[in-house]
Structure formats: C-alpha cells, structure tokens
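re: ur question from yesterday

yeah so i grabbed the chain u mentioned. its 199 aa long if i counted rite. heres the sequnce exactly as i have it in my notes:
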Amino acid sequence: MAAAVKRRFLLALIVPLALGACGTATPSPAPTVTAKSVAEIQAGDDYNDTDVMFLQMLAYHQKQGLEMTTTAASRSADPQLKTLAQAVQATEKDELSMMQAWLTQWGKATDVDTAASLHADHGGLPATGPAEIKALKTVSAAGFDTAFLNLFLAHQHNAIEMAHLETTQGQNKEAKAFAVRVRESRQAEVQQMLKLMNS
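ran it thru and got these structure tokens back, copy pasting raw so excuse formatting
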C-alpha cells in the first residue's frame, strides 16, 4: 500500500516537469506531502463546524473530479492532458481517503448534505453539475479536450474557494494546513491547464 501511494505522489511531482519539458508549459510543482505523512497524519479532536463542512464539501467535490479525470484519462487526445488527469487522480484519491478518515474520527458523515439552505452563508456548495460531467462522455472526440479543460478549470477554482473558506474560518490545525496545500496545488493545476489551452 505504501509503495503504491509513493508511486502516485512521485507521478504528481513529475507531471509539472513533464509539461515544462515539452515547451508548452513551465515547471510549476504543486506542494505535496510525503506518502508517509498522508498515511499517518491525524487531525486531532480540535475542530469546528467549518472544518467539518470543508472536508465534506471537498470530498464531494473530489468525487466529481475523479469522475471527470477518469473520463479524461481515457478520452483525451493530448498525452500531456492524460498525464495531468492521471496525476490529479492519484493525488485526490489519497486526499479523499484522508478526509474521510478525519470525518469518521470526528463521528461526522463523510457525505455532504447538498441542501442549498445549509450552504447559503458561504455562497453555496461549489460543485460541478452532474449534467456537465455526463456530457464529457458524449462530447465529440475532437471537442473533448477543450470541453474538459473549460469544465475542470472551473471545477478546480471551486476547490480554491473552499480552501479559502477553511483557511479563514476553520479551527483545526491540520485541516487548515491541508487547505493551504489544496489552494496551492489547484492554483498550479489551473496554470498548467491554461498553458495547455493556449498551446
């Protein structure tokens, strides 16, 4: 298990360099944590409602992201985009497991309640519409890469918004540190995708 996690994190580190080597993107490595720290990190028992909501929202968000990147890994015609999608998958699978473990430790549901009234005070639940995700499976092969990049750019911007909520209103030290990593890694991914769109 540890070896598989380590391989996934090495892939996440390699992707920005691979994109830079082809001349269409510059190296922009996203901050990562070691395989050991992901497997062993504990959030502790000091948390507030924002910490719980952040983890629940981001877990829901990442399940959508995994669905989108799975489609990209199989349908994209661009080797760089395929590599990016696979790296995002590896990182977000590990993050999702960690978030679910923390929520379980706190005795909280690992799924978010999508009722609009519960998210009104922080601008709504940042999420990508199911119809938009489904459309990625049927869009023409020629139009797939552009459709994916447009949708996934907006999707990762949503993650940045959620991370901002946690860093400003959260209480748990580890959750706030994780939010900083999420913000920085998604910003790096956004920059990589913009370069791919403009190449």
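noticed a couple things. Confidence is low (pLDDT under 50) at residues 1-32. also The radius of gyration is 17 Å.
anyway ttyl
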